[in-house]
Every structure is written in C-alpha cells, then in structure tokens.
Write a structure and sequence with these properties.
Elements: E1 2-4, E2 22-26, H1 29-38, E3 43-48, E4 51-55, E5 60-66, E6 78-86, H2 89-101, E7 108-111, E8 115-121, E9 127-133, H3 142-148, E10 151-152, H4 155-159, H5 161-164, E11 177-184, H6 188-198, E12 205-207, H7 208-217
Parallel strand pairs: 2-5, 6-9
Antiparallel strand pairs: 1-12, 3-4, 4-5, 6-11, 7-8, 7-10, 8-9
Length: about 220
Amino acid sequence: MPVQVQTKQEFVIHPAAALGYVHLTTADLDRQITFYQSVLGFKLHWKKDATAGLGAGRDDLLRLTELRGAGRVRGTTGLYHFAVLVPTRWELAHLLRRVVDTHAHIQGMVNHYTHLAIYIPDAEGNGIELAWDFPREQWPEAAELVRLGNGPLDPEELLGELERDLSPWTGANPDTRIGHVHLHVADLDAAGRFYQDVLGFQATFLYSHRAERLEGCGGTGAPA
C-alpha cells in the first residue's frame, strides 16, 4: 500500500524534467519493430545499422539496438516495465482493441484510481504498461489510495469508448509519451538514495506491497 513520504534534500531535479525515450537491447530488431508497429501503432522514425528509433511521430519514445543472442535473464535487477501513457481514454481503448486483434498476451488490467493500466509483454518479454491518467483533480488523496488499493478494469466498459466515438484510429497519438519506468532492484533503500542524492528525484510514495513484490521477483540482494 502507498505511504506518503516527505523528505528534505539539498538537490532537487528541475520540475520540468521529463522522461525521454526507453532504450532496449533486442535479439531480433525487425521482430521488435513489427511488434511495436502492429500492436502499439508506433511509427518507425529511423533505422541505421543495428539500431532503430520509434514513436508517435515526434521525439523517439523507444530505441532498439540489436545484439544477436541477447535474452532476458530472470531473477536479476533491471527493467520491470515501462509505461506508454496515452492522452485519452479513447486512445487506450484502441490500444486494447489492437492487443486483442493481434493476439498479444495480456498479463493484467488494473484501475489504479490515478490511472487505468493494461499490462502486456513485447515480443521478447519486456514489460509494457499501457496507461491513461484520470484528470489530476480526480486523483484520490494519499490516505484514500491506501484504502482503495487496486481495482478492476472492465474491458467491455473501456471498449465502449469506441462505440461513442467512431473516428478511425491512425496509430499512436502524437501526444503519447513515456509515463514512467518501473525497475526491479536488489536494495530498495540503496536505490532510493541513489535516485534522490545523485539524480535529485523526490520520494513521493512508498508502495510497501510493491517493495515486497520486487524482493519476491528480483530477490533481496539479486544480482545486477
């Protein structure tokens, strides 16, 4: 459950700082490009040698570099998932439709009460969260989030957005962006100190259940 954290620190990252692109190593560049184009509606911005940039027509959201023989190693620190944040509920509904139509695997669908989330793996098992934020004024207070936990996402209700607006979907909306990157860590306290003391991030919430899950998946003291 989330617990609000307030700390004082000497260096704080600029409030306008935002995430850029996610960069992944892949064993099969063309296969991954096809996945992100067919399922997420990404555009291929450029491709040179063993690297490609994809996104929604503006800045790259994803870069892929091919390393033959590369593969995910279970039980280690590293990427848990990255969130692809779409600007409207209608866009999220279309992504769900694309996931279903392309027979992509759905790992979970959750109402986090701050946002709706659909969890899928890409063609090589990297975790992706497809997300849409509720308007900020609708977000519950921290104490209410603790009480609510996570709720179900009704796929039929979400897909109803497509019946209310019959406009054609032409791929990823240009306002799509990377919402967050979620990491497996071996030591939550040490990781927190690094991101606060070195990068200037501020702690906002500590999700105790998520920390336990990280220890269960990555393992306390898991290899890097």
